[in-house]
Protein 1
Amino acid sequence: MENNKALILSGGGARAAYQVGVLSAMGKMLPKNTPLPFSILCGTSAGALNATMLATHASNFSKAASTLAFVWRHLTPDQIYTVGRWPVASSLTKTLISLFHKHSHGSSIALMDNTPLKELLNNHLDFSRVNTAIENQQLTALAITAMSYSTGESTTFFQGKADLKEWQANRRKGIKDNIEIEHLLASSAIPMIFPAHKIHQHYYGDGAIRQKSAIYPALQCGANKLFIIGVSGNRSPKPWSTPEDNIKHSAPSVTQILGQLLNSAFIDNLEDDIHQLEIMNRLIKDLPEEKQAQHQYLPTETLIISPSEELNEIAHRHIRTLPKNVRVLLKAAGGSTSEKISSAASYLLFTPEYCRALIELGHKDAMWEKDRILDFFND
């Protein structure tokens, strides 16, 4: 069976800088000038931007990783969204007005304008290279997931080999399409924070919101080994063991609610995916050989790299690097202290200080897992 390794990059706004650190370390582990070691790239939200960058540099993985690291290390919020006083105030006013009036079909409601991101992507991505990588057999598929506001379906747009088929089942579909900048802007458009983007006849938003399974698109594209870079702190010491008497009880603010909703969309589904896949693989191993052959499409090997420290805590340490107007906006939504806004802020902290801290953490964590990573690529 052909060995189709898939790289799955989940969403998470600025948290995706952690993925860059892991990829940077991998670029140093593998031999110099090694082509892309994954035949399938799947990205959601900010992970879609990283996946596409890798696809456009498929001939040289270490160069792709170093280019990603350079871009993320020098990111500033004004390269991602408009942070001036009046644009934020105008967006907030429009959003409040939309609660009481029928919304015009000509624009998309959001608190922030991410037009600067479009310019950033245009400066660093040559989408024609995706097709070149496919023609040179360096890439089987690039899959970008977004959510349709029209149908509520989790929609994966994929560009790949001619024999790949579209799919549709259980509120998720796969559409064969040439990946362009609008796909990336749509996939990374966090609802209410960034505006929805139109692709063909429908408007789409952040792909993590209705994505029941982050690994499903990879399986549909033929993956049989999964390398997943998460953005949750599932390897860090858990606060769940804290005695309830030590937990401060207060009514949740809008900012706290937003942070938990984002965590649920970007983090929880991926972890459930991996847990269920591991259970299925264990059950299949107990089946007779003739029955096992019926399940060869399931990946038999998965490797997940995730933060060894809580990203919310890192965000808390760098909260002052957020533009003042964004901090004011988050605190106005009920986050009276930096602790209360750190979860939501961790998705918007596109600052050099925060992104570099996450890149360094990702690099360190990957180096800890060096033996497992090299084993994954040893066929």
Protein 2
Amino acid sequence: MTDQVENTSERKIAIIRREHFNAAHRLHNPNWTKEKNKEIFGKCNNPNYHGHNYELEVKVIGYIQSETGYVIDTKILSDLIKNQITNRFDHKNLNLDVTEFKNLNPTAENIAIVTFNILRSHLDQKLELKIKLYETPRNYVEYPF
């Protein structure tokens, strides 16, 4: 058996942080009739909105830094998600309270893309980023895939 440790700075690895937020939304296309919105979006088109307990997984992929042993410090990642996403979305009506959804239907797909774009702008470009958003335990989206 050897005492040498493989050079981990030459291999990519992923770190995943899971967070949670609650938010309300209404799926609605203002260019459609009331009937078409109800046909396409069903209960999700409720004029009084509805809510979800979202689970968010943020995956950061990169090389381990030899000085720290980290791809990214989990505290930094946690704070970034909290400050940029959770504080922005948690206990909010996405349609009414979140600027990014003023003219964008807040589907799970669009929430994941908005989340990606916000976080991407705060991460070192050499790090890869992937988002997984669970709207329910059985329904989730991934971006990019």
